[in-house]
Amino acid sequence: MKSTRRSFIKRTAVASSAVIAAPTIISSTVFGANDRINAAVLGVNGRGKSHIKSLMVQKNVQITHLCDPDMNLLRERQKSFKETYNKDVALEQDLRRVMDNKDIDVVSIASPNHWHALSVIWACQAGKDVYVEKPGSHNIWEGRKMVEAAAKYDRIVQHGVQLRSSPAVNEAINLMRDGYIGRVYMARGIVFRWRGDIGDQGFSPVPAGIDYDLWTGPAPKRPFTRNLVHYNWHWHWDYGNGDVGNQGIHETDLCMWGLDVGLPTKITSMGGKYLWDDCKEVPEVLTSVYNYPEERKIIQFEVRPWCTNTEEGATVGNIFYGDKGILVVDGYDKYKTYLGKDRTPGKSGEDGGESGSEMDRGDGGTDGHFANFIEAVRKRDKTILNGPVETAHLSSGLAHLGNIAYRLDRVLTFNPKSESFVNDAEADRMLRRDYREGFEVPENV
């Protein structure tokens, strides 16, 4: 993909006999505590707004560029940025210009899922460190390519699973490691979010200010529709991964972390659309089971979109089952335990902190997760990352496996070592996708 970035330089540079295709430059800068880190945010709708807020509270970090295919959104964010921080910020529609700007040290990626992996790889090739929103990948194959790129170019890559920075959740994990609820054999992830009828807005002309070709990037290019731009792409297979690959990545990650497992060997998944006759392609209700026979462990995962019960008080979270009790992680920053047959309340914990959003507050919120990322960048030490690139691959991969089993409607056998299915060419074809010319995720990063 370096050749694509180089050809972009050639196409857009001012004509000059001195203009040549520049080689990829790998930065080896070690930042001191007083050195300013320049950042760019890619994708400024939704979670991108949280990225802006969290980067701007980090010491000696300055957002210098905002990037989005929608210039209308960019101008809105530029205006609010000036009002909030009394600072100017440059705008770019094309992320390739951000990658080629040597004054930018780190990028945070909050674009749609189908752009995540290629953005990470391009950033690594350009010598930039990366914070990437969940899910790290749109499919399993490109998740592995992200891991390879981070290693090859020695980049700091943090995955946006901020509960890994939560002191309370870390305390819960340590309790399980110490045997507090006994031998932990099962994890259950739940995502019970209100997801209503999104209708079907049909096709329409591309609105002024949106570069729809750039928005589409690596994915198949459909006629423009408000069914996709800006949020509802989550519910279409070419761009999103359903709620198990949206909100659910926090919980798939915690299931694997808590059980201390990687990818499973047996997967089954069942669900469907039972509520709305709208344009969503993904299931509204989805139940997936991931089995680890050799480890004698199992993960259950459930997505529900509407009226439902809580489970141990949680609507989004995780429940771990041991032979001496259970441990419940509610949301992003608190846990409780119940021990024995009589369900005696045991240890519990909560981060606290002040913010309008559970996702952004305290040490375990987005601010704290970005602080961990910036510390690793300054020290050039990826070992201190709370959500390293491997979590982006594996937690996203678990969601992808469940979606593949749902779409094929059968039990699948998977080989975690080769990251391929066992004697199943049809399922193997769903481990990756075809990429549009100029936006290919490279075989050799």
TrEMBL record:
Positions of the Gfo/Idh/MocA-like oxidoreductase N-terminal domain: 37-160
Family matches, as SUPFAM superfamilies: Glyceraldehyde-3-phosphate dehydrogenase-like, C-terminal domain (SSF55347), NAD(P)-binding Rossmann-fold domains (SSF51735)
Protein name: Predicted dehydrogenase
Domain Gfo/Idh/MocA-like oxidoreductase bacterial type C-terminal: 192-255, 369-440
Organism: Arenibacter troitsensis
Lineage: Bacteria, Pseudomonadati, Bacteroidota, Flavobacteriia, Flavobacteriales
Bias kind Basic and acidic residues: ranges: 340-350
Keywords, comma-separated and alphabetical: Signal
Listed GO MF terms: nucleotide binding
Region feature Disordered, mapped onto this chain: 340-366
Signal peptide location: 1-21
